[in-house]
Amino acid sequence: MSSNGTPNGAASLPAPGLATAALHADHPNHLADDNYAVAPSISLSTTFRSPHPDSANAKLLEDVGKGEAEFDMQDPSFHIYSRYSQSTNIRCEKVLSQIMKSHALTYSSGISAAHAAVLHYAPSVIAIRKGYHGVHVSIKLYARGRNVKMIDLDDDYAAAVAEASDGSKGSDVDEGQGAVKRGGLLVWIETPLNPSGEARDLAKYVRKAKAVSGAHVVVDSTFAPPPLQDPFEQGADMVMHSGTKYFGGHSDLLCGVLAVKDKKEWTSLWTDRTYFGANLGSMEAYLLLRSLRTLTVRVQKQSRTATLLAAWLHSLSSNQDGQVAAEDEPFAGGKIVARTYHSSLQPRTDLDDLVTKGTAPEDPTFDPAQQMPGGHAPTFAFRTVKPEYATFIPHLTTYFTPATSLGGVESLLEHRCKSDPTEDARVVRVSVGLEEFEDLRADLRDAFSKVLQREGAK
User: 385 and 319 in one domain?
Assistant: First the structure.
């Protein structure tokens, strides 16, 4: 890509939109290669022939070793070893960087990306509330053997930093790798939230974090990939995705993504990844690149369908917050659904004790529409009246698959406590795929009828 974000050889064009960038950001310069493959070849090699001692590439490596030249690992002129760079992975990261308007790096899984983010900032205080349980376990692994203070998102950040063993000073990242401070406060915000699909007010928490010297904000935006949300617009320092989900989109690869605005910070992350060995495999990178081509059309349809489905389920609950169910709806009045959670249902004043128990509630006046201009979360949750309903409904459907994970082209239902024992036994998580809304609604209606028949037959 050229410096203005347009494909090579098209510098006269304006910067491309997200969907266009996803299709062309990694394409070679057609003026230099007028016969390149539209679907790129996959290279599975782990190592590459060394440059001849008399070659320009050998001279470049010699100059790099002397500190007289730089080797850009984001766009290398040649490859040495696949843990450093590999053509398929590089192409993936070019596309991700364009659509995330940042410098992006891929990892072997979402959890490995989350762990890399925490290690990068090496905080002594971490502010976090609920969200994906795997991230909490990963943070516990980071904290093992370290003096790390865990606080809630609404706690007093400055007081917590002052009480931490190393205060608020922190230490610089290695010389030449940027000006990031380590050892201070890390605010980890997951929005939309797993499993509810409800949004948190990013701007509010970023303002609160930035009032503390050296604080950093990482946003897990897995539930709202581009084009739904761009956390950098609210001031996030780093954006994390489990690329396994919407970036991959086909339930056939594991991937993690971290994105930062500063190239030196990207280089620091790249160095860490090289020696943690958390690289994305070449085959997974190829599948990811394939999937990124259709990201916008997939996510936009999934978002629209999820919003319709959440509204319908919300109309069935006993507490509808002003909504009115259709008169011919047999499951209205809370017969099956006690509550539906989704960013499209915010702001709402009917706060839920189950979600807010033990923590301060989210601001009931916060409207996620501005934060999520591209649409609402394609994954959300509903709470059934009885645990038995949540147990069996996923297994009584035809078009939904009872399975964990999310973001794929096929719709999933998950009895969430099976994966995360901390969740209420009545909660069902819904990952909306590419099926038609009417078919998914009919499938749920059928499952609701069957679960009531099953109950009556006992």
Answer: yes
CA distance 455 to 401: 22
Same domain (yes/no): 132, 247: yes
* 91 part of a folded domain: yes
- Report whether 261 contacts 281 (CB < 8 A): no
Please report whether residue 10 resides in a domain.
no
Bond before 347 cis per omega within 30 degrees: yes
Q: Are residues 194 and 306 in the same domain?
A: no
Burial letters 225-243, b for 16+ CB under 10 A, else e: bbbbbbbbebebbbbbbbb
| Domain presence at residue 347 | no
Residue 76, Cβ neighbours under 10 Å: how many?
14
277 lies in which domain range?
18-292
Beta strands 216-220 and 149-151, pairing class: unpaired
Query: Per-residue DSSP letters for 326-341?
Result: -TT-TTTTTTSEEEEE
| 274 and 300 fall within a common domain | no
* Residues 12, 33: Cα–Cα separation, whole Å: 19
CA distance 25 to 412: 31
* Three-state DSSP state, 208: helix
Residue 423 zone, left/alpha/beta (φ > 0; ψ -120 to 50; rest): beta
Burial (0-12, 13-18, 19+ Cβ within 10 Å), 272? middle
**Domain count across the chain:** 2
Q: Is 372 left (phi over 0), alpha (psi -120 to 50) or beta?
A: beta
**pLDDT tens, 245-279?**
999 999 999 999 999 999 999 999 999 999 999 99
Using one digit for the tens of pLDDT, what is the confidence trace for 161-180?
999 865 445 555 554 445 68
First-to-final CA distance of the chain: 64
Q: Model-level pTM?
A: 0.92
Three-state secondary structure call for residue 315: helix
The amino acid that residue 89 corresponds to is N
- Here the tokens at position 285 are 């990178």
Residue 383 lies in a domain: yes
